[in-house]
Amino acid sequence: MPPLAGRIDVHHHFTAPAWLDWAEQHGVVDRERLPWWTRWDRDAALEIMDKTGIGTAVMTVAMLGRFQDRTARQESARVALRAAADVVEADPERFAFFTPVFLDDLELSSWSVRHGLDELGAVGVSTRTSMGGVFLGDPAHDRLLRELDERSAVVSTHPMEVPAGKDAGGLPGMPPFVCDFLMDTTRAAVNLIRNGTLDRYPNLSFILPHGGGFLPYMATRLELFGGSVEPGIEPERVRDYLHRFYFDTAGPMSPSATPTLMATVDPDRILFGTDWPPTPAHVIADRVTPALDSDPFLSEEQLQRINRDNALRLMPALDRP
Question: Is the pLDDT at 252 greater than 60, yes or no?
Answer without folding.
Answer: no
